[in-house]
């Protein structure tokens, strides 16, 4: 897909949202609240003992009351989005009855800085985090930012546009509603993270080791020019390809790349925005491992940064989740397993529609069925009437018909050809 044209203003820094927020934020807030206990790092047995202790204490009413008094004020004042009203979030009525046993959260990364969390900004990274409440297994899905979806514009009218515009049109409530309406999800909570603090989180975990190509090295250094200028932070250019260690700023530049192919560890190739989100998932897996093994001192440091980072000059993080909800997720956070990540839609076309490059699901209804199979192990999921209507409208408007994944085509005896 071609890059966006300049529109008479300086291009803003595109924020990269790594799933590390979901892991580190919950872990950090959890462990940070228990910072009165001993610090451990490196020793797996001690870390296991610490985690078990924290899980047990998180359910103790006395301990929770102490934390509420000592930490809740900072959390409510600096992190909680007090204007968010989940009663305004739309959920397809069929989903309310069928989708149980999972906690689903939306994560947004914005192309904004400073105080622009509320308006005039796009969520260029959209990730659905799904937690199996029984097993603690976590799956994450990147929704491609240019995906054609139904949403509300600023006048409250229904429109079909790129997914990343929903935040610009209707804020967090509208974007969560978009995900629910188009994907048959039941999300009520969100987390949004800004650039600078995310960079500091990666640095606090010691950076990340990745394997890059010559072209990726070139683009990292290119993105670093803008990143340094916009943020005032600094990081040196990458001097070689192959196995390299990336700082927070360098890792963010790496995850912004969408103009050269990404090859995962199995050799699969991802291009354009699919490559960008695949890079995020690649970095994520490595960061998640580091977050899980991190010592209490690191997590406490990150927790303090989160609780005190938002200022009048810059907002780092906001969330709709109450402090009690964070506490309830502590046992999951200490034991979770990131089982898999992927991108959505699964089968796509990338036409030009109304003069814009779009990502169009080749059968939204089919892709939502596959999404529920992937996230919730629901085979032959029957989509809601709302998704069926949206799917039909997109097919009629674009002329793009359903195309199934190879394994489904093989099972149905269909050919491999794709329109």
Task: Walk me through the structure.
This protein is of the alpha+beta class and 419 residues long. It has two domains: 1-344, Aminopeptidase (3-Layer(aba) Sandwich), CATH 3.40.630.190; 347-419, no CATH class. Helices cover 45% and strands 18% of the residues. It is built from 15 helices and 16 strands. Helix 1 packs across helix 10 (296-309) and helix 6 (195-204) packs antiparallel against helix 10 (296-309). The longest helix has 22 residues, at 272-293.
Secondary-structure blueprint:
Layout: H1 20-33, H2 44-58, H3 61-78, H4 93-98, E1 102-110, E2 123-132, E3 137-143, E4 148-152, E5 158-162, H5 166-183, E6 189-193, H6 195-204, E7 208-212, H7 214-231, E8 242-246, H8 248-255, E9 262-263, E10 269-270, H9 272-293, H10 296-309, E11 317-319, H11 323-328, H12 330-335, E12 337-344, E13 348-349, E14 352-353, E15 356-357, E16 360-361, H13 364-376, H14 385-398, H15 406-412
Parallel strand pairs: 1-6, 3-12
Antiparallel strand pairs: 1-2, 2-3, 4-5, 6-11, 7-8, 9-10, 13-16, 14-15
Helix pairs in contact: 1-9, 1-10, 3-10, 6-8, 6-10, 7-8
